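Hi all, posting the design record for the shared folder.

TITLE: backbone redesign
STEP: 1 of 1
STRUCTURE INPUT:
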């Protein structure tokens, strides 16, 4: 399984995006194609991280002024197992999902 990129996330975990998962993401969310640099930025410096549908998943969000679909947040959903994880999906959205806040950027 080829890895498109691997990045150290905001909490020091190694997160990777595989080619197989990338094909899945752009099939369901074609607006995310060519947005890998933004995905990396979300993982490195999110504005907020919410617990996903299960305790081992997280949704990282960051606002971007310029995207293929106007000013939106990019959400990157990751599954984390111990010290590493992988990207499950990514999509643009207007709002942050309600849920348990796991981490929030310091506004000071």
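Okay, here is what came back for every position:
SEQUENCE:
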């Amino acid at each position: 399984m080829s890895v498109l990129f691997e990045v150290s996330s905001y909490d020091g975990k190694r997160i990777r995006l595989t080619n197989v998962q990338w094909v899945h993401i752009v099939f369901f969310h074609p607006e995310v194609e060519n947005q890998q640099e933004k995905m990396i930025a979300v993982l490195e410096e999110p504005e907020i991280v919410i617990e996903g549908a299960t305790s081992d998943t997280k949704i990282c969000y960051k606002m971007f002024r310029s995207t293929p679909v106007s000013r939106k947040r990019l959400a990157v959903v990751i599954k984390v197992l111990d010290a590493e994880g992988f990207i499950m999906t990514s999509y643009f959205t207007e709002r942050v999902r309600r849920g348990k806040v796991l981490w929030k950027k310091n506004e000071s």
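COMMENT: The beta strands are 3-8, 14-18, 48-51, 57-64, 72-81, 84-93, 101-104.
Let me know if anyone wants the other runs.
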